Amino acid sequence: MTQTIKKKPAKSVQLADWYDYPQYFDMVFRDETTMEVEFFEEAFKRFATGKVRKVLEPGCGSGRLITEMAARGYKCTGIDLSVPSLKYLEKRLARRGLKADLHQTDFTNINLNQRNGNPEQFDAAFCTFNTFRHLTNEAAAVSHLITVAKHLRPGGLYILGFHIIPLDVEESCIERWTATHSQTKVNVTLRVIEFMRRKRLEQIRVSVTAKRPNNTIKLRTEFPLRLYTAKQALKTLSSAPDFEIASTHDFNYEIDEPVEVNEDSVDTIFILRKKG
After folding, report:
1. Domains of the chain, with CATH numbers?
2. How far is CA 147 from the centre of its chain?
């Protein structure tokens, strides 16, 4: 008798851009979502004038923060340039029976729901995890700050988090993260492949390997991020005259432990409040 041996299907490997697979970025950082949102809510209570119910996230990506804020009863608006990210966010909101207004647009010139020549007003906005550094020149960074300020009511907050470069920073840097969900395991490596202090840019390479039972997806993307020293960050923020700095913190998200921004600062959260 001849025995037939069934072969296991060969595992396939696909190469793609990580921005086309927002679910993997979401997996890696989902554990930080609750901590971030609770920090936002404490900041709203302590530093905003009036109640915060209507919020905006420029660069919302996969929407982990938008989704959590919507689940807590906030009226949320998110903007991003990535169509795959926005489609992914639409589906995740629908699965949970949640709603948010989503727009594909450039966040250097936000122009939402003009009424009588005035932009839509929000109680607060937030943009964390270095999204701001994708604006690689001063004009774009300042334009972003000014356009966000126009969409905030007086006393509203903009919670802005990004990485500051100490003067004695190591120019080479590698960071790694691992996450597992169900039968998927994701490994992410972020590497600085070029550090250009005089140009105030660093070139980043992100490599992602997502392993599932029947296939492996490998993603690789390179992009520039703008460099900021503490002095340069404060100068850029001062170019948006409608904002004042209400408080500064680090990425530990401890509302009771504000930090001083100085030449040793690294991961920094600026709580900006609109004047008036």
Report:
1. 20-165+227-274 (3.40.50.150), 167-225 (2.20.25.110)
2. 17
State how far the Cα of 202 lies from the Cα of 224, in Å rounded to an integer: 6
Integer-rounded Cα radius of gyration of the chain? 20
H helix count then E strand count, the chain: 6, 12
Please, which pLDDT band fits residue 118 given cuts at 50, 70 and 90? confident
- Counting beta carbons within 10 angstroms of the beta carbon of residue 167, is it exposed (0 to 12), middle (13 to 18) or buried (19 or more)? exposed
7-27 pLDDT tens trace: 444 444 445 677 788 888 888
SS3 content of the chain, % helix, strand, coil (to 5): 30, 35, 35
Percent of the chain clearing pLDDT 90 (strictly above): 76
Fill in the DSSP letter of residue 177.
E
